[in-house]
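Thread amino acids onto this structure.
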């Protein structure tokens, strides 16, 4: 295994629910020149037993157990254990399609200037039901432009050139759980980035993915990665190169105002609520909405706050909790009275469509 072309790296910590399906999706790839490095960083459930079972049957599976640590540190440990020319990232709750590695390796072999290639995804829920197909931009020029504001590679679809990963020093743990976005920004300063338009992975949405606290950390990481990249583009030293933790105070010291920070959190949570609703996880979506509304939102724009209350009202309604729904809707309207116009517009539209314009002729 010392000369394998690809090292598939997965990190695990209490992920037993979907783990077997994720492992098998790699073992059944049509591309065979790979090792499968799995790093467990603190599981207390059956994750290690599941991995060990596969490792005993397939010598491509290499289980490494390390002390409890952060996500970024665990991913870097996986890189240290890996021997391949390429590093393929795999998450323990997703499913790689059979030709994923074949397509990605073929692309990278033909495009030596590319440091990272990702691909399209099929969104699925906890019950393996398809939700939608999603793509990021394919070409480097468009990717470089959009990368300034958001991530444009789904991490569990990524195949990374090993020397690109090494050149930028790997993941920076302080940015987790936005460590991938920070990595793409740094690699993009030296290499091109691409996405295949083929769907290469089934990307799962489920309630256990990330807590609200982790989502708040993710927003801090995203904004920090953008600020950090801006300093580098302007020829200045990266002020976050050696930080161990990113806090609200860290971002404020870099000139990022609190309204922007809280606005990004509200927007991110609104998107998460939509994703959970699409996945049929109404309770999880509602829990997120209620939690974020109970947090400090005094700097959030009134329109964003009203939209959050309206989303929560709709979720209460879907759960037939009509009184709670009316209360949430009432708060939305108190904040932004013009929201009353929405149902009136729908009513007028329905009435208008129902009228035959020739009826009175």
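Threaded sequence (361 positions):
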């Amino acid at each position: 295994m010392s000369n394998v072309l690809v090292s598939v790296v997965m990190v695990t910590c209490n992920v037993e629910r979907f783990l077997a399906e994720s492992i098998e999706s790699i073992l059944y790839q049509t591309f065979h020149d790979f090792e499968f490095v799995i790093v467990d960083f603190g599981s207390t459930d059956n994750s290690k037993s599941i991995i060990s079972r596969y490792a005993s049957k397939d010598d491509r599976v290499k289980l490494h157990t390390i002390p409890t640590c952060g996500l970024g540190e665990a991913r870097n440990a996986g890189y240290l254990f890996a021997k391949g020319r390429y590093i393929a990232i795999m998450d323990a709750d997703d499913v790689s399609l059979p030709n994923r590695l074949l397509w990605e390796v073929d692309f990278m072999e033909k495009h030596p200037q590319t440091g990272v290639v990702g691909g399209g995804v099929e969104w699925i829920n906890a019950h393996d039901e398809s939700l939608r197909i999603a793509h990021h931009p394919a070409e480097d020029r468009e990717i470089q432009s959009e990368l300034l504001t958001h991530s444009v590679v789904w991490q569990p679809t990524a195949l990374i050139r090993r020397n690109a990963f090494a050149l930028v020093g790997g993941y920076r743990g302080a940015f987790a759980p936005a460590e991938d976005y920070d990595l793409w920004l740094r690699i993009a300063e030296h290499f091109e980035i691409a996405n295949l338009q083929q769907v290469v992975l089934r990307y799962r949405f489920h309630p256990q993915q990330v807590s609200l606290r982790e989502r708040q950390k993710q927003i801090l990481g995203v904004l920090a990665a953008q600020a950090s990249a801006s300093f580098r583009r302007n020829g200045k030293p990266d002020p976050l190169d050696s930080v161990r933790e990113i806090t609200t105070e860290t971002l404020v010291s870099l000139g990022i105002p609190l309204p922007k920070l809280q606005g990004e959190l509200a927007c991110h949570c609104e998107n998460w609520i939509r994703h959970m609703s699409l996945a049929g996880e109404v309770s999880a979506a509602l829990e997120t909405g209620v939690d974020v509304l109970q947090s400090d939102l005094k700097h959030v724009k009134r329109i964003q706050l009203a939209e959050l209350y309206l989303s929560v009202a709709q979720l209460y309604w879907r759960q037939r909790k009509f009184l709670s729904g009316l209360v949430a809707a009432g708060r939305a309207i108190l904040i932004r009275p013009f929201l009353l116009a929405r149902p009136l517009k729908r009513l007028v539209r329905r009435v208008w469509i129902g009228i035959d314009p020739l009826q009175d002729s």
